[in-house]
Structures are given as structure tokens and as C-alpha cells.
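Consider this one:
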Amino acid sequence: MKEIFERISVRKYEDRPVEPEKAEQILRAAMAAPSAGNQQPWEFYLVTDKEKIRQLSEISPYAACAANAPMVIVPCYRTEDLRWSETVLIDLACAAENMLLEITSLGLGGVWLCAAPLEDRMTKAEAALSLPKGLRAYAVIPVGYPAESRPQQDRFDRSRIHYI
């Protein structure tokens, strides 16, 4: 998958909406992710409302780049009726990575802005979206057509490989 080696964190976006079919494809990729016991603890909020996006851009000092994105996806997780509640953050990480790879595949850009497990960030995102009880915000992922480009840095480090 070339997207693994091409994906970068994009924080600047063109003033151009993301087509609904591309947004759906991103969410299909997210829901294709593995999860413990196939519990699929996720829910996704697709945000295009500018005021809500502004509020989400204020969940942390690092989230300001979301303010000018045409779309923000907020992956969330359920806290009730789970077989393995201790794995939800891992499950959502798999879904978020699938989303970021599909975003790249579609010629879009995005960046993973952490909410979980930082309570203050989670609470701010949940308040911005008026999430119902039993649903927690995992991350804020701005998405759009990139207004910046650069090659991905090579992170391969042979010294971290150990053969036994």
C-alpha cells in the first residue's frame, strides 16, 4: 500500500468542500478496521458546520489547524455494552489509521489530533458536539484538499529491530 509511505499530517487545506462520496469512503475504511472481539465500539461524527469546527479547533493548542478545514471527523467510542472496554482505544486507533490511509488514497489530507485519553480535550470535544451519555470523543481529524505538500520522512530505524 503506497499510502503507508505517502501519508503525511496535513494541517492546511484549500477552501473546497470534500465530496459526500469521498466522506463516505473514509468512513467505510474506518469501519473496516479490526476491533477486539469484533465489538466495533465506534460512532463517527462528520462535521461541516463552521461554528462546530471552530469549537473543535479549540480543544487543545495543537488543534488550531482544524479551524480552516472544510470537514472534521470525530471518531467516538461507546462506553456501554462492550465485551472488552479496555481495548476501545486500540480499536479506535485502528479505525483512525484506516481513515488516514483512505484520506491519502483519495487525494485528500488530514491529521490526527489527539483527544483521548486526555480528559480535558475529550470533554471539550464532547461539549462542542453535545454527545449523548455513553459516548466519548476519541480524536479530531480535520480533512480537506491539501494546501501544502511535502514528502513523508523516512522513519525506518534498523537499530529498533531485534532478531532472536
Notes: Residues 10-148 form a domain with the NADH Oxidase fold (CATH 3.40.109.10).
